[in-house]
Write a structure and sequence with these properties.
Number of helices: 7
Order of helices and strands: HEEHEEEHHEEEHEEEEHEHEEE
Bound molecules: 4'-deoxy-4'-aminopyridoxal-5'-phosphate
Radius of gyration: 19 Å
Number of strands: 16
């Protein structure tokens, strides 16, 4: 896949991840076994395909002199366990840990993006998932992207983020249709990424990343009950001593710097929110 010179770091990460997950020579972990990527098939009545009844994670590993180091794996898998619990799927953290490490080793990866997915499979189109079979897979793909300085142009979405009272901020597959709508809207308007705001004008998050702002040297991690409590965000708060609080869109527009952060995005400086340009 060709990438535009000017593509944002997140867009590059997404393109890279898409490109490399299509590699049929890679191994996938599926329900306890390492198998070839191309040998897997799901039936067309897979429940998760119809209703989004699955839970996923996005995790990174970084190459070190001692081999691949997975960034905060226990926290990612604990978040996944919570999502699975909500949907009634058993999820064994020890097994998932082994699966992630085995897949990385099988694919001989250092810098990598890791995608575990738990989902409801075959067994009819009813919405009751009681007793339905569920599965776990782990895919990995090579990625060489680190803090490449891409500058992201962000629009303010007309869509609202799923309210936590309807869909808790966990990585539930179906919840990401909301992100897809906002991303489509942003792209069609010539932006790289979308930002959600609530009805009171508070900022929530981006489609797959949290937000920070910097004003007069103070760093603020944007907090919102409808936003995913990101693991990258948590690490950045620890590193910068940022205050975590709610903020209005107007505060972000008045800030000196704004950036997005997440596992795929890492730390992505924002060059523009709608007409407001930063750092130029
Ligand atoms: N918000 C959303 C909606 C996300 O999908 C992600 C990516 N997981 C994040 C924030 C950032 O979370 P993390 O730093 O844990 O990847």
């Amino acid at each position: 896949m060709q990438l535009n010179e000017g593509a944002s770091s997140e867009a590059r990460a997404e393109a890279r991840i898409e490109a490399s997950t299509a590699d049929a020579t890679q191994k996938l972990w599926f329900d306890g076994q390492l198998i070839d990527h191309g040998s897997l098939q799901a039936t067309l009545s897979t429940h998760a395909m119809h209703y989004g009844s699955g839970v996923f994670e996005g995790i990174r590993a970084y190459a070190t002199r001692d081999g691949a180091a997975v960034f905060r794996l226990p926290e990612h898998l604990e978040r996944m366990r919570k999502g699975c619990e909500l949907l009634g799927m058993t999820f064994d953290i020890a097994q998932a840990t082994d699966a992630v490490l085995a897949t990385l080793r099988a694919n001989n990866l250092g810098d990598a993006y890791i995608r575990p997915l738990a989902w409801y499979g075959d067994g009819g189109f009813g919405l009751d998932v009681t007793g339905r079979a569920h599965h776990l897979m782990v895919a990995t793909s090579a990625t060489n992207l680190h803090l490449n300085g891409g500058r992201t142009r962000v629009s303010v979405s007309k869509w609202r983020r799923n309210p936590a009272s309807s869909l808790p901020p966990l990585k539930l597959c179906g919840a990401y249709v909301n992100s897809i709508l906002a991303k489509r809207e942003a792209k069609s308007r010539g932006f790289d990424e979308a930002m959600f705001t609530d009805r009171s004008g508070n900022v929530v998050e981006c489609t797959g990343a949290n937000l920070f702002m910097v004003k007069d040297g103070s760093v603020v991690a944007i907090e919102h009950p409808d936003a995913l409590p990101g693991i990258t965000r948590d690490s950045l708060i620890a590193l910068t001593g940022a205050a975590s609080r709610m903020a209005t869109l107007q505060e972000l527009l008045d800030a000196d710097e704004v950036f997005a952060c997440g596992t795929a995005a890492e730390v992505a400086p924002i060059s523009r929110i709608e007409d407001r340009e930063y750092g130029s």
